[in-house]
């Protein structure tokens, strides 16, 4: 009970020593992109959708996105004034089905959101070839992926959206950015000034967060149900503002801190898990072993997954199912959305691979506080369950 690994949780640096600006730092990583900063990753995605709509005006703009994803994608699309259209996944992969994507692209499609789930890259070039054939923009949602030092070709889409929220690879407990090759139509927002009181509050919250994600303390957060940790709900976006000045100043140091760490933990997880019937998604998707993941994902048959999950969490080993269901089944989504209309089984039958993925996904912690003995224990439980 008194040892509990968080599923994710890189610490936040609260002091700034870098001589680089946030703009220069991101441009050194992603040459050819211009960075623009917003109050959250959801707001950044909404801004990117607004730009895509401006670049391809049409009467009823649609945005295509995977049927298994964070509901914040829906929030961003609705705020921008477009209609979300869901696309099934490929079988046993965190990728959109190219066949269904091609079928759903049309004259009203302004953008396709390609999700970098866990840090496993989508097939951006193939998606761009299809999307560009109808004049649509490809937006790469990289909320769960961030390049390590030297990975200068990590992002390849027309526009990239990055989140710096809680539990993200580079975390500032808030903020997001759009990296754009063609920023025409992108709503610009100025960096928001902060008062001394706001600075002190942000520093206090970050310090508290850094302490509470320690495995010896994280169990206390889980004992507070009102925090709703790990819950997946739809939360509508209500405004579009710039990133605050404190987080903007802290971003280069936090990027540098993230890029210092390697991928040794997830490589050890890959070696430790030897069970039959367990699909390791990163190698299955030809992800380089050196690429750092936010979580280490597996596919396990239902029933067995629940048994493994219960045993891992009883041992305090930070396992999670990520999002519990496909988007039409997420709590809080507006009932007026076309994706939620109709009988449950009829809706699920439109996205069979996404339903299967949601029912089999199990993720393991891959952050810096996972110890070798944790990894050995994880492997022992999975291999004997």
Q: How would you describe this protein?
A:
The protein has 385 residues and is of the alpha/beta class. The chain has 2 domains: 159 residues, Type I PLP-dependent aspartate aminotransferase-like (Major domain) (Aspartate Aminotransferase, domain 2); 120 residues, Aspartate Aminotransferase, domain 1, CATH 3.90.1150. Helices cover 36% and strands 13% of the residues. The protein has a 7-stranded mixed β-sheet with strand order 1-7-6-5-4-2-3, with helices on both faces. Strands 8-9-10 form a 3-stranded antiparallel β-sheet.
Helix/strand class: alpha/beta
Query: What is the third-level CATH name, the topology of the largest domain?
Result: Aspartate Aminotransferase, domain 2
Number of helices: 14
Q: How many β strands by DSSP? A: 10
- Proportion of helical residues: 25-40%
CATH superfamily of the largest domain: Type I PLP-dependent aspartate aminotransferase-like (Major domain)
Give the low-confidence spans.
none
Measured between the Cα atoms of the first and last residue, the distance is 21 Å
- What would you report as the Rg, rounded to the nearest angstrom? 20 Å
Order of helices and strands: HEHEHEHEHEEEHHHHEHEHHHEH
What characterizes the major β-sheet? 7 strands, mixed
The best one-word shape is globular
Quick check: average pLDDT?
Answer: 94
Number of domains: 2
For the biggest β-sheet, the strand order reads 1-7-6-5-4-2-3
Name the CATH architecture of the largest domain. 3-Layer(aba) Sandwich
CATH C-level class of the largest domain is Alpha Beta
